[in-house]
Amino acid sequence: MAERRTRADAVSNRARIVQVARELLTSTSELPMNAVAKAAGVGQGTLYRNFPTREALLAEVYKADVDVLVASAPDLLAQHDAAAAFRLWLDNVADYARVKRGVLAALEGGELAAGHHDPIAGAIDRLLAAGRDEGTLRADVGAQDVLLLLGFLSRPEAAERAHHVLDLIFNGLRVR
Amino acid sequence: MAERRTRADAVSNRARIVQVARELLTSTSELPMNAVAKAAGVGQGTLYRNFPTREALLAEVYKADVDVLVASAPDLLAQHDAAAAFRLWLDNVADYARVKRGVLAALEGGELAAGHHDPIAGAIDRLLAAGRDEGTLRADVGAQDVLLLLGFLSRPEAAERAHHVLDLIFNGLRVR
DNA sequence: CGCCGATCCGGACACGTGTCCACTTTTCTC
DNA sequence: GAGAAAAGTGGACACGTGTCCGGATCGGCG
């Protein structure tokens, strides 16, 4: 029995990778995986074992930001009716997206896998449920749908039209 | 003056590339550029000069399909009111997207460049304009917005929810 | 017909991604 | 503390993308 604990060097390696990635992202928005590996002083194998995809790494780097975003949902719900809260939350997402494309990439890697269940999806679910109870948002909408619609934010040309398109999306989610 | 005409071999090469690409796509949905080059018996340079991006190549391959899609817009408008026509057209897009992801990729490469002006955008503009005149579709929507929203179709997990999400989008574009 | 220069060819390169596995290091056990 | 097994390492590889440029090739012209 007695599960072996994870090796000390493994932990520090993982931490150093995230650290290095964060630093690299301050200078450019590029994030070559092999550069991360080299800068962190680890091999490609180590990097990819810790973070199978670039998204996984970005998710870790921007975890804090994502957490703020997720946490803002209940706050908004406390201060506004569900529809307004939802609308405001969408704007928050857009703002984050504009500053750091990475946040977007992170949430796009959305875990469809079992157990893990994406916190962003959770936040959206909350907002949708509130709107549903309130009778202002369509009942046939799931977080998955919203995530799909929000995907446009990752396109580079979306920046300017973002808020307008969000308007259209929001309009479509309201009950008629 | 007297513009030199394009060399005969250049023309045949271009044609052969498209031909080969089409054949490769019948077996798999993958389309490695270097494989195309090799199969067509040309160098990478030649391939990339003719089609700078994979999307450009796909656009050429699926040109016929896209043309059908574009041509269907006026037909639908002739037989239905603008809102219905638009809704039906969106379904057409989704159907094409499901069968051939390539069509999607093709239209996503949407020429923002001058002069060329994307035929798909043209079709959308027509539909939108009709809806605007009719008073059933929002006046503040551009083809660009619709294209952005339609982007979700290229995500692999969109397949099942596609029609539902299109419903939401359509709902958002209607006047309230 | 044959030359000349514009045009086009095509493969070598530089680079990034992601996988694989022989080897090293760490932890546990005694 | 010593030994062994497990856990982790890291760099070589295979592959795909896209660029670049020396040289072959074609079309125009005398």
Number of domains of chain A: 2
* Second rung of CATH, namely the architecture of the largest domain in chain A: Orthogonal Bundle
Number of strands of chain A: 0
Distance between the termini of chain A: 59 Å
Oligomeric assembly: homodimer
CATH superfamily of the largest domain in chain A: Tetracycline Repressor, domain 2
Name a few traits of the molecule.
2 domains; homodimer; Tetracycline Repressor, domain 2; 176 residues; DNA-binding; mainly alpha; elongated; Arc Repressor Mutant, subunit A
Describe the structure.
Two copies of one chain form a homodimer. The first copy, chain A, is mainly alpha-helical and 176 residues long. Chain A folds into two domains: 8-53, Arc Repressor Mutant, subunit A, CATH 1.10.10; 63-173, Tetracycline Repressor, domain 2 (Orthogonal Bundle). Chain A is 69% helix and 0% strand. Chain A contains ten helices and no strands. Chain A has helices at 8-27, 33-40, 44-50, 54-61, 63-79, 82-99, 101-108, 119-134, 143-150, 162-173. In chain A, helix 5 (63-79) runs antiparallel to helix 6 (82-99). The termini of chain A are far apart. Chain A binds a DNA duplex (30 and 30 nucleotides) through helix 1, helix 2 and helix 3.
